[in-house]
Amino acid sequence: EPVKVIREALLRVLVYYYPLAGKMRNMPQDGKLKVVCNVDGVVFVEATSPNTLFVLRDLDEFKSSFQQLLIQFLSNNPLQDIHPLILQ
């Protein structure tokens, strides 16, 4: 199963690149953007679509079929809890 293989490979890689599993956060004390490492991990989304990759071939034209596949992260504060790595 491809998703299982990708997820397990990601787990192994993040041992060495653990900051990618954290969240970037604007620290109120000094206003600096820092990576906060916690147990939340990387956002990993598995999805299916009735479309083929042929439908998505031209990404210059942002098609509605492509937009429906993207996950949306809405935040009131754009500098809080930014995931440096999102795998979809």
Give a topology summary.
Blueprint: H1 2-16, E1 23-26, E2 33-36, E3 43-44, H2 64-67, E4 86-87
Parallel strand pairs: 3-4
Antiparallel strand pairs: 1-2
* CATH homologous superfamily identity: Chloramphenicol acetyltransferase-like domain
The geometry reads as flat
The count of helical stretches stands at 2
H-E string: HEEEHE
Q: What would CATH call the class?
A: Alpha Beta
Mean pLDDT: 80
Please provide a written account of the structure.
- The chain has a single domain (2-87), classed as 2-Layer Sandwich (Chloramphenicol Acetyltransferase).
- The protein is built from two helices and four strands.
- It is of the alpha+beta class and 88 residues long.
- Helix content is 22%, strand content 14%.
- It holds the Pfam family Transferase.
- InterPro entries: CAT-like_dom_sf, Plant_acyltransferase.
- Pathway: Alkaloid biosynthesis; taxol biosynthesis.
